[in-house]
């Protein structure tokens, strides 16, 4: 059985931050979706997230899905180099970003990630996190110095990000491509505000991805919404 995708995405600044350092990509024509969460605070975290999405969106898909994955890896490595050069020019420690990716193939789905932006899959009402946050525990008395060392929902510090190290390593995982499966890509601003149970309930609603996104953001923005909030929902359907 061949499959196709319906998707929707949205990003919000939230109630506390003065600007949105998140960026999203929704490209059903490429079978590519992404959420990036910039870091660097006043040192251009918004630039980092936007650059990742811009460069990924400029890719073309030729050859096999594995050729496409190689092109994505090369693209992110180039962005990694440019962000490190920008940080050096501005004499700051890090200008970087997390990224969570989804690539659709008729036979399977691949998700890639760097940092703590996440990809979830829901099938038959069960929500599973496909990614594993790249973070380490942080001493209780450690002081935040911007997004580059910020505490996540699990009070961790990022151990990997685009722009952080000379060589970038993207982790990849494989999932099925069956009608009824839904994927959620989100920045940590979502899982800071909403529990897995609330995410599950939102994805269970038999509405379009657009309506599900509306409900997800209504829930998140009813909370403190201290961070930027970004999410993309991708639904697999029979073609």
Give descriptors for this structure.
5 helices; alpha+beta; 239 residues; 5-stranded antiparallel sheet; Phosphatase 2c, domain 1
Helix/sheet category: alpha+beta
Number of helices: 5
CATH-assigned fold name: Phosphatase 2c, domain 1
CATH class: Alpha Beta
Strand order of the largest sheet: 1-12-11-6-7
> What's the SSE pattern?
EEEHHEEEEEEEEHHHE
The Rg value, from CA coordinates, equals 17 Å
Sum up the overall morphology in one term: globular
Largest sheet: 5 strands, antiparallel
Spans of 5+ residues with little confidence (pLDDT < 50)?
140-154
Distance between the termini: 8 Å
The number of domains: 1
- Quick one: CATH superfamily? PPM-type phosphatase domain
Please give the number of β-strands: 12
CATH architecture: 4-Layer Sandwich
Question: DSSP strand (E) fraction?
Answer: 25-35%
Instruction: Average the pLDDT over all residues and give the rounded result.
Output: 91
- The helix content, as a percent range, equals 25-40%
């Amino acid at each position: 059985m061949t499959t196709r995708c319906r998707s929707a995405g949205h990003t919000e600044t939230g109630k506390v931050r003065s600007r949105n350092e998140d960026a999203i990509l929704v490209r059903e024509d490429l079978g590519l979706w992404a959420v990036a969460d910039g870091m660097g605070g006043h040192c251009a975290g918004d630039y980092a997230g936007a650059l990742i999405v811009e460069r990924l969106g400029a890719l073309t898909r030729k050859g096999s899905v594995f050729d496409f994955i190689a092109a994505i890896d090369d693209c992110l490595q180039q962005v990694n180099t440019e962000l490190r050069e920008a940080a050096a020019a501005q004499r700051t420690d890090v200008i970087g970003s997390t990224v969570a990716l989804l690539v659709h193939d008729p036979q399977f789905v691949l998700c890639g990630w760097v940092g703590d932006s996440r990809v979830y899959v829901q099938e038959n009402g069960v929500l599973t996190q496909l990614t594993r946050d790249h973070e380490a525990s942080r001493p209780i008395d450690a002081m935040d110095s911007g997004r580059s060392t910020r505490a996540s929902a699990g009070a961790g510090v990022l151990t990997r990000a685009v722009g952080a190290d000379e060589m970038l390593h993207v982790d990849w995982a494989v999932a099925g491509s069956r009608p009824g499966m839904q994927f959620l890509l989100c920045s940590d601003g979502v899982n800071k505000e909403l529990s897995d149970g609330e995410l599950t309930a939102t994805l269970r609603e038999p509405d379009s991805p657009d309506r599900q996104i509306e409900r997800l953001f209504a829930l998140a923005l009813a909370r403190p919404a201290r961070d930027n909030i970004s999410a993309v929902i991708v639904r697999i359907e029979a073609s």
